[in-house]
Write a structure and sequence with these properties.
Helix content is about 5%, strand content about 40%. It is mainly β and about 170 residues long. It is globular, with a radius of gyration of 17 Å.
Length: about 170
Amino acid sequence: VTTKDSIQVWLLGTGTSNINFRIGEVSGVWERNPDLTRDTTYYVVGDIIIPAGEKLTIEPNIRVLFEGDFEMQVYGELEAVGEPDSPIEFTSIDTSGATSEDSTWSGIIFKSGSSPASIMRYCVLHHAVTRLNSAIPHAIAAYEDSSLIGGALRIENASPTIDSCTFYDNSACR
């Protein structure tokens, strides 16, 4: 709503007091803390997108915590290569209510045309729930084909390498 003398703005979402939070387009390197005695955590506070032609590298021993029903959309390249004893973890910030819409995330989606060089190795993905939101008309059309509904990982006409990853407590429903 605008008037001659004012503009009204609404900000919706969740917040965190931590400094490593991400929303929108991402690329570059998410580095781990050089002091390996401390966790390195990145907080996702909105949907994030790796644009076509861009690359996001996530280093071993990083936790990616989603603070709500958000997803990572890969149009470019994702390189998430952990190590057997230092995996990369993707999960919800609150895993206590895995079936509650407020305490889950919506997974990683490799979109058609994303880079075939994308790789996820030694990653752990858990507590993701993908739901059909019947309140959003375009969501109904997008999910008419139940094969498009994924839990922690969805691959849409793409060919990333997924190797030695662990998936648990994920679900998808209409």
